Amino acid sequence: MAAIAEDGLDRLTMAGLGREVGMSSGHLLYYFRSKDELLLRTLEWSEEQLGVERRQALARQVPVRERLDAFVRLYVPQAPRDPHWTLWLELWNRARSLDDAARDRLLDIELSWHRDLVALLVEGASRGEFRAVDAERIATRVRALLDGFSTHVAMGLPGSDRAHVLAHVADFFDETLSPNDRTG
Q: What are the residues whose beta carbons fall under 8 Å from the beta carbon of 20, sequence distance 6 or more?
């Protein structure tokens, strides 16, 4: 993951990666078949690690909004060139060349985040912490918002640092989920 994040997949060679991890390029190709498969499997491994953290954060016995904020903190990159997000950017860049099975694997990862977000929105509404919303619809919008902001953070675009992104997302939640009717 660090090698991909540092140089990008295009500049990474199987021979160079093999030297870094103490394997021959032949062994890497035997296990991964291609750079795309290596990239996807690395992302799946990274997501498994992050999934453990996410499940722990969401299982805490705190208000739903605190868990929602923890979800967002796990989602948004820590800084430009965040290794986890670099994997996502590389895969999104290659998405057109991936086969259907690989795209299905990416969708499975996306849906795990989506299901957790929907569950938080439903729980928050049922407890009166959030107003009643169409949880599927709002979750789709939130993920698009997070993906857009996260891409900017990962790319290091000026004005898109993590703190500002977290503040924007918190404002969005306040405006969208507040149980008080702000329209009247």
A: 3
pLDDT at residue 41, as a whole number:
84
- Return the structure tokens found at 7: 């140089």
> Residue 79 gets which letter from DSSP?
S
Cβ(44)–Cβ(109) below 8 Å? yes
pLDDT band for 182, please (50, 70, 90 cuts).
low
What is the set of domains in the chain, with CATH numbers? 34-177 (1.10.357.10)
Report H helices in 8-99: 14-21, 25-32, 35-59, 64-75, 83-94
> Is residue 21 helix, strand or coil?
helix
Q: Closest by alpha carbon to 82, among 5, 3, 169?
A: 5
Pair 4, 87: CB distance under 8 Å: yes
Cα dihedral sign for 144, 145, 150, 156? positive
Q: Any idea what the Cα angle at residue 46 is, between residues 70 and 32, rounded to 5°?
A: 165
CA 110 to the chain's CA centroid? 8
Q: How far apart are CA 91 and CA 89, in angstroms?
A: 5
Whether the per-residue pLDDT at 184 is higher than 70: the answer is: no
